[in-house]
Structure formats: structure tokens, C-alpha cells
Specification:
393 residues; alpha+beta; single chain; four-stranded antiparallel beta sheet
């Protein structure tokens, strides 16, 4: 009897049977792009803290239809939420930073314009962003306001027919390479969103350095010093926190899936290593404690994928709620981190080497655990949903 392939062993639960042929074909096409364009180079990018030719990579992602792929019209692919989820798994199996690039572009910057922008905004920016000819970012988090964005200090004030924006945003993916930024600010009319070309006078985006996580990703500060914008720059279809929070829910949905890509990569690495590494005259995969680790890792991965698929089908049916997304992010990030940490123990000292992907995924997931809603915030969302009592304050 032939030995099952690694991919067969990783799907002995038969979860691929739950996907359509078209969904599996999309997964395969994204996996092939990552195998060719990212996997041979990403450990070096992580070590150097720099992605080579990020604009070239963006155009290749756009050519495959991955940028804003779950949006329709304006050059977007109009694919399903499950299609997008499967793409996120493959992107993050290569690196969380690559999935973050796609997520911020499509689910934050593009979604904000697509959902809340004017027709002029959509016509000008969405085709460029969908093709990767332009890169977008999303400015909500500030140095002193993360989990409580309602306290933001960035201000927008009227000056005749124009707007003047002043403030700072922090931890902004794509910021230093972006052509357009969606910036949220306090105004006399409440919190408003603005479409800000990054070549506007007074706009700068210093690169954040000295990171030990998401190093294959551009992370920046946004500084707005009396940035003058025309009255038409405001997103006309939303006021208040509903706007940015709905965008974040879109992005969190991708994280529910994407985190499993990092987990799968670590599990694959641990399973392969355990079969090849010999101690005491036999592969370490033959030891009971190693098999227990592998079994528990696989169990958590399988449960996470089932949850992600359930949420994806609900999203495609129009019944997904933000609270359900919180449940998915809370569970799947925690499970993915545990899988990576356990995989690191199987690899022993080799687990901390960039010759293997495990420590890179583990470090990256420490950021994913925090951004777009911390563990604490998503726990309280779930708690409020269960009890009916808000415990945020």
C-alpha cells in the first residue's frame, strides 16, 4: 500500500469534500503564485525587514484577481467569501505580512471606498487598487487610541469648501508605499472618513522599524499636518464609528481563515521534520509524545477550518454577524499560535531558525493576535453576546 502524501495526510478528515471544484481551483492558483513568487524569498525578506519589489508583487496579486476579490464591479473579481477565505489561507501559509498586504488593500481601503465612497471615489480608485497599480492603506489606530477608536485625536475641520486634517495614525500596513489612504478623523459632524491621496502636501508616512514580527510587511506611521482636501474627499455614505468598524469586520473575517494558513505551514513543517529527524534509533514521529502533539495540532487546525467555512457560508448567505466574526478570530488565532508554538518544540533548536517557517509564523501571529481587535476585546464581544451585559467600561 503506497504511503499517503503529505497533503492527503493533512486532509484525512476529508474537509476538501466540503468545497466546490471552483473553490479548490482558486485555492490551487493562489498556492501556485505563492510557491513561485513568495516562498523562495520570504525568509530573506523577513530577516532583512524589507520586501523586494512590493509594487511588482502587488500587480501580480492584482492580475490574479486577489485585490478586493470579494467585491463586485470597478475591476474587482466579485468572488465569494469562501473563495476569499481560501485565498487568505494560501497567502498566510506563505507569510502573514503578504496576507496583510492583500487584506488591508481589499478589505479595508477598497471596501471603505466600495461601501461608503462616492461614485467619483469608486471610479478613480477601485480599478487602480484592484489591479495593483495603486496601493492603499487604512488609518484608524493612533498612538494613544487602539481598542477605543472613538477617542481618536485626529481632527478634520472645515475651511471654506475644503477640509483640513491634522493628526497621527500608528501601525499602518502599506502606509509608506500607499498611493491613497482612508483616514478617519473627528469632525464637527462626528467621526468621518476621508480619501487622502498620499502626495497631498502635509501628508507623510515614516516607516516603523525595529519590528520582530510582520517583518515582511510595510508598517508605518501616518502624519497629517494641516492636509488640505477638497470637500469631495469625505466618504459621503457613513458617519460615526459604524464606518471603520464595519471595515474592520471585513478584515477580521480574512484573519479567521488566514491564520489557519500559518498554522498549516507550521503543522506541515513539524510533520515532515518528525518523520525525518531520528533520535534513539528511530524517527521522533514514532514517539508517543510527538504523536500526541501532532494529533492535537491537527485537531485544532481541523476545528478551525470547519469554523471558518461555517462563517464563510454564512457571509455568502448574508447572515454573518460581527459577533460571529469575533468568535472566529478569537478561536482561530489562539489555535494557530498554539499550533506554531507546539511545532517549534517538535523542531527543537531548528525551530528558531529561519531555515524553517515555524518561528516566522509564530512571531507574525503575535501581531495578528493583537491587530484588528485584541484577544481581550473579542473576548468581551463574545461575553456581551452571551450575557447581554457590556463589560468594555
Amino acid at each position: 500500500m503506497p504511503t499517503p502524501s503529505l497533503s492527503d495526510r493533512l486532509d484525512f478528515a476529508g474537509l476538501d469534500d466540503l468545497f466546490t471544484a471552483d473553490e479548490l481551483a482558486i485555492r490551487a492558483s493562489v498556492r501556485e503564485l505563492m510557491r513561485r513568487r513568495v516562498d523562495p524569498f520570504v525568509a530573506d525578506w523577513f530577516e532583512r525587514g524589507e520586501i523586494d519589489d512590493i509594487r511588482g508583487l502587488a500587480t501580480e496579486l492584482g492580475a490574479l484577481g486577489l485585490l478586493g476579490m470579494h467585491l463586485s464591479g470597478y475591476g474587482c473579481a466579485g468572488l465569494s467569501a469562501v473563495d476569499y477565505g481560501l485565498a487568505c489561507i494560501e497567502l498566510e501559509a506563505s507569510d502573514s505580512g503578504i496576507r496583510s498586504l492583500v487584506s488591508v488593500q481589499g478589505s479595508l481601503a477598497m471596501f471603505a471606498i466600495w461601501r461608503f465612497g462616492s461614485e467619483e471615489h469608486k471610479q478613480r480608485w477601485l480599478p487602480l487598487l484592484a489591479s495593483g497599480e495603486a496601493i492603499g492603506c487604512f488609518g484608524l489606530t493612533e498612538p494613544d487610541h487602539g481598542s477605543d477608536p472613538g477617542g481618536m485625536r485626529t481632527r478634520a475641520r472645515r475651511d471654506g469648501d475644503d477640509w483640513l486634517l491634522t493628526g497621527r495614525k500608528m501601525w499602518i500596513t502599506n502606509g509608506s508605499v500607499a498611493d491613497v489612504a482612508i483616514v478617519w478623523a473627528q469632525s464637527a459632524d462626528g467621526i468621518r472618513g476621508f480619501v487622502v491621496p498620499t502626495d497631498a502636501p502635509g501628508f507623510t508616512a515614516p516607516l516603523i522599524k525595529h519590528k520582530l514580527s510582520l517583518r515582511a510587511s510595510v508598517t508605518s506611521e501616518l502624519v497629517l499636518d494641516e492636509v488640505r482636501l477638497p470637500g469631495s474627499a469625505v466618504l459621503p455614505e457613513v458617519r460615526g464609528l459604524k464606518g471603520p468598524l464595519s471595515c474592520l469586520s471585513e478584515a477580521r473575517y480574512g484573519i479567521v481563515w488566514g491564520s489557519l494558513g500559518a498554522a498549516r505551514s507550521a503543522l506541515e513543517s513539524a510533520l515532515t521534520y518528525a518523520g525525518e529527524r531520528e533520535q534513539f534509533g528511530k524517527p521522533i514521529a514514532a514517539f508517543q509524545l510527538t504523536q500526541q502533539k501532532l494529533a492535537e495540532m491537527y485537531l485544532e487546525y481541523t476545528k478551525g477550518l470547519l469554523l471558518a467555512l461555517h462563517l464563510g457560508r454564512r457571509k455568502d448567505a448574508g447572515t454573518l454577524t460581527p459577533e460571529q466574526v469575533s468568535l472566529g478570530k478569537l478561536n482561530n488565532i489562539r489555535a494557530a499560535l498554539d499550533i506554531c508554538r507546539t511545532a517549534r518544540t517538535i523542531l527543537g533548536a531548528n525551530g528558531i531558525s529561519l531555515e524553517y517557517p515555524v518561528i516566522r509564523h509564530m512571531n507574525n501571529l503575535e501581531s495578528v493576535l493583537t491587530y484588528e481587535g485584541t484577544v481581550e476585546m473579542h473576548t468581551l464581544v463574545v461575553g456581551q453576546t452571551l450575557t447581554g451585559i457590556p463589560a468594555f467600561r
